[in-house]
Amino acid sequence: MERKLPVVLEEYLNYLNSRKTKPQTAQAYYYDISLYLKYMKSRMNRLEEKDIDSIDISDIDLKLLSKISDVDLISYNNYLDKIRQNGGAAKARKISSLKSFYHFIVYIKRYLDTNPCDQLEMPKIAKKPNKNTGDVSSDDILELIQSIHGKNHLRDKAILLLLLDSSISLQELVHLKLQDFAFEKHEINSSFNDGDAKKFPLKSETKMALQEYIDQERMSTDCNYLFLSQRKSQISVRTVQHLIQTRTEQNPKSRRNISSTVLRNMNI
Length: 268
Description:
The protein is built from 11 helices and 3 strands, in the order ααααααααβββααα. A hairpin with a 4-residue loop joins strand 1 and strand 2. Helix 1 runs antiparallel to helix 2, helix 5 packs parallel to helix 9 and helix 7 runs antiparallel to helix 9. The chain is globular. GO terms for molecular function: DNA binding.
């Protein structure tokens, strides 16, 4: 039987298809967002949580979505923890799906003015400590990234997440071009070293941070480098090192020596 979807979810799935998203990825997004919408309909209508899986979401519209607040997101997060008993990895996937969905309806279609996912934190997935990171913990890194604000905050957050997410060097990073970012493939490409192309797979949070920087903050210019300086030219290695130091100093809770090397070797 053909599934009946809310119009906005249908539009989102069509958008994923237009970006040539892998079918299995789009299917995972569909399941995650459907569960989220079922939960929100249940919450708004005070239905029993045990009946969530059988809820019809075909009538969900922008009016309902516009009523969802960060408080509702916290409640959903608790539901995943306590009722669904999702672990860190499962929750991370569901939240990544939500961030992608809200990026589409807020920033691509502009159906909503605010994004309730902005303050939703990714769950921490425990991994073995890395000897190259010294006494810097995953909490220190996450605290640093969440504290970034003000001028160039989208650029700086995208740079830190990219360093954190991949083994890309600073020289490779500053030589990235706009066309090197392959959104639909969840990867970024570098041909800095002797033209030998390297592919760096990206997590959803890093991919969305890069797209937000490009769509909302990157200045319109003839310069084709991905990351730009204040002068609308290629950012330098020294500038990246300086912004990491500055962002660390601006965070009142940071008491660690965080560098690009630490970020590249951090496991989060």
